[in-house]
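C-alpha cells
===========
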Amino acid sequence: MAKGKDETTGKVVADNRKARFNYEIGETFEAGIVLTGTEVKSLRGGKATIGESYADAKDGEIWLVNAYIPEYLEANRFNHEPKRPRKLLLHKRQVFKLMSAVSREGMTVVPLRVYFNARGRAKVLLALAKGKKAHDKRETEKSRDWAREKGRLLRDKG
C-alpha cells in the first residue's frame, strides 16, 4: 500500500467501528465502488451504514454485500435498492490476494470506512481481518482500560 493511503483526506460517510473490536485488522486496501446516481446523492447525505457488511468474491470480482445506503428521497421512481450488492473496483493482484487469503487462511474481508476522496470519488477502505475469540476481545478491552487508567494516574501526578 502506498504511503499515506490509510489516511482518508475526504469526507467520511460511514465508519465500521465494531470491526476493530471483533477482528484483528491486517492489511488494508482502498477500493472504488460502483454506484448509481441516486446512491451517490444519498451517500453525500451521510446516512449509510456498513456495520454488518462484508466483501465477497464472485467470478473473480469483489462485491460489497449487505451495505445499507438509504433511498434518495428526491428521486421517486428511479431510486435504488438500499441493500443491493455493489461491485468494488480493485486491481487484479489485489483481488487475487484477497481471494487467496480468504480461501487459504480463513480470513475475512471487512469494510472499515466509506468516504469521498479529495477528487470526490466514493471509496471503501477494506481490510483483511481475522476474527477474534471472546478471550481476545476481553484482553483487548483490559489493555485499553489499563492504558486509560495509566493516563489518568500520570495526569493526576504531573
User: Anything to note?
Assistant: DSSP finds four helices and seven strands in the chain. The chain has one domain: 12-132. The two ends are 40 Å apart (CA to CA).
